[in-house]
Amino acid sequence: MLRRLHSAPGLVAGLIVAFMAITGSVLSLQPVMDHFSVRSATVAMNVAALANAVSTHLTGVERIVHAASGAVTAYYDGGKGVAAALIDPATGAVLGDYSPSPIFVFFTELHRSLFLGMNGRFASGMSALALIVLAVSGMLLLVRRLGGWQNIFVTAKGTTSQRLHVELARIAIIGLLVSSLTGGYMSLTSFGVIASTSSVGQFPVSVDGGTPAPISSLNALQAVPLADLRELVFPYAGDRTDVFTLTTASGQGYVDQATGALLNFTPNSVGQSIYETLYMLHTGQGLWWFGALLGLAALCVPVLAGTGTFIWWLRRRNQIKVANNAGARHADTVILVGSEGNSTWGFAQVLHQALVDQAHQVHTGAMNDLAVDYPAARHLLVLAATYGGGYGRPEDRDHGARQHDALNQYVKPLRP
């Protein structure tokens, strides 16, 4: 049952899961590149000082965004629409124009929705679910194959494809679980299965309305270090009743532009904190080295899909059909077979026929198909494989047939 649970999602959703893993590995490069390209602040800048410096260098500033990578971007009225500029986080000076990488914009949309809107988002979410099933069932199969958790680091045996599949899975399993679980959570959030977690405070009913004070003197902004800033939205120019909208790592509030007072601050909910943490783990934004590890783990998925499909195909190709196979409920003798590469089925076939020749009603099946009860059975035989050579392979079946006489010596006591 466990093997079927592992194989079915892999065969049905293997292509889309591999595709999503490849696009995810491309996106994992973004936080790495940002980390090595973004200039870090060398002084402890607060939000008031930064906003004051930016508004000095740029006219018509509308908002300032502080990314998880440390990059500071200011959006302002460029005359022909909103323009964006990169800001030095140490001085507030303009470093140059900003535009998002078209490559990462393309892959972000491709990864999220396949450019198919909500239908694509649904496919993306289902691929995350399939990866969860594959990762969990694969981990349990690995533990069972190696003989328990205590042997989890024991060198795997088997064919080349089996060893490659096991070793890559052992390397990538933690990263794949993190990626699939966090991706699944965000997908549920986007579809509203998990309620929206954003914390938005009530807009102030009344403000001072006096002459706006210099930005550098606003106490509420002075109290927030740049490291805690997420976004600062400026009030509409000339409107004394408007306010600064301040979003920090801990919540959101409003700042009176005349008095500098913090108004209606709403702390992040537990759900919002969980979402932000999972978003960071899934994307690597703000944790570039972890994102790089997830990207490497994702690169293992296409290879795992290929080797897994090849292993399944070999097992199906080499599977031996058992003639005269009685129903499980009516058989007096039941043979259960456990085999990774079908080698043990050669023995089972010979043993099955020998028992049938002795007038037994014999049912032969896989150990994974073990039934709760065999009402008519008087004998239960279990054949389990080792990692040595077997007689289920085509080139060995003649040799397996020559074991008939030896097996008959075992069958004699079972004669009715």
UniProtKB/TrEMBL annotation:
One family from Pfam that matches here is: PepSY_TM
Keyword Translocase applies: no
The family database entries (InterPro entries) matched by this protein are listed as: Flavoprotein-like_sf, PepSY-ass_TM
Its domain of life reads: Bacteria
For this UniProt entry, which segments traverse the membrane? 122-143, 171-195, 287-314
Which keywords does UniProt give here? Membrane, Transmembrane, Transmembrane helix
SUPFAM superfamilies given for it? Flavoproteins
Q: Is Transmembrane helix among the key words of this record?
A: yes
What is the name of the protein in this document? PepSY-associated TM helix domain-containing protein
Name its species.
Devosia algicola
